[in-house]
Design goal:
Strand order of the largest sheet: 2-1-3-10-4-11
CATH topology of the largest domain: D-Maltodextrin-Binding Protein, domain 2
Number of domains: 2
Distance between the termini: 37 Å
CATH architecture of the largest domain: 3-Layer(aba) Sandwich
Shape: globular
Radius of gyration: 18 Å
Number of strands: 13
Number of helices: 10
Length: 272
């Protein structure tokens, strides 16, 4: 394929360890930063070759492969995926979902429908929309916006990573590196592995550099990157991913029969 390899990543704090020194490690590549939902669209349109996309978008596309053992995941609270609500879960009738999200939006609907038996009306909260002004009982925020938000007018703040873990006992996987069909990364997959290794070794430095931009405490950012988030895609993460995919299929949010196919390797992640 023609170079440069086009890489799409999210410009959130939770992505920084995965793209640490990437421009030096993969000088033949071009790095594009955008919100998760837009990255999925760019990958589908052929404008990116590999992108860190929501896992729901991977299953919806059904034609990508995944760079092995890299993910954004949590095993309990995630802090950056929060459903702010004026009511308890069972009283939610209308929910506004962050337009930058796809996997977290699907997780919200799965929790509402499968865990709490609620059929809520779903609307979109624009990326520049004010959550406080949303005509909804609950508002989903993701990424840096979720970590900065307080929303005092909303009585409840549900951490969806914690909600999922309390319900299933499994990790939740939010995003993976997806490779477009037919693409030869030319070693960029190895650079992504190296970037992850460097990033995990430098969470303190990353937190110190990013905290002022976000208006967050550097110590909080370090704990978030080093103890809250997990960046592997091991057996437990795969089990959580299979559970999410099965329920997404049941709710009609993803097509059935899609495999979790690794770049150069294949594992099965079929719906039950």
């Amino acid at each position: 394929m023609a170079y440069p390899v086009r890489i799409g990543a999210v410009n959130y704090l939770n992505t920084k360890p995965l793209i640490c020194d990437l421009e030096q490690l993969a000088p033949q590549a071009e790095l594009v930063l955008d919100v998760p939902s837009r990255l999925a669209d760019l990958l589908a349109e052929g404008q990116l070759d590999v992108a860190l996309i929501p896992v729901l978008s991977y299953f919806q596309a059904g034609c990508y492969s995944v760079v092995p053992n890299i993910a954004i995941a949590s095993r309990g609270p995630v802090l950056s995926v929060t459903l702010f609500s004026r009511t308890p879960w069972t009283a939610i009738r209308r929910v506004a979902l962050d337009a930058g999200s796809r996997t977290s939006a699907a997780l919200t609907q799965i929790l509402l429908g499968k865990r709490y038996g609620v059929a809520a009306e779903v609307t979109s909260l624009p990326l520049d929309g004010q959550a406080e002004d949303a005509d909804a009982d609950a508002v989903l925020l993701i990424g840096d916006r979720a970590m900065r938000a307080c929303l005092p007018g909303f009585q409840y703040a549900f951490d969806l990573g914690q909600e999922w873990f309390d319900w299933t006992g499994l990790p939740f996987v939010y995003a993976v590196w997806a490779v477009r069909e037919g693409v030869d990364l030319g070693g960029v997959d190895q650079a992504l592995q190296q970037a992850k290794a460097r990033g995990l070794d430098r969470t303190g430095a990353i937190a110190y550099a990013e905290a002022p931009r976000l208006g967050l405490d550097a110590g909080f950012c370090r704990r978030y990157l080093s103890t809250i988030l997990h960046f592997d895609l091991g057996p437990h993460e795969q089990a959580g991913l299979r559970r999410f995919y099965a329920w997404a299929c049941e709710l009609g949010l993803a097509p059935r029969g899609v495999s979790l196919e690794y770049y150069h390797r294949t594992y099965l992640a079929q719906s039950r």
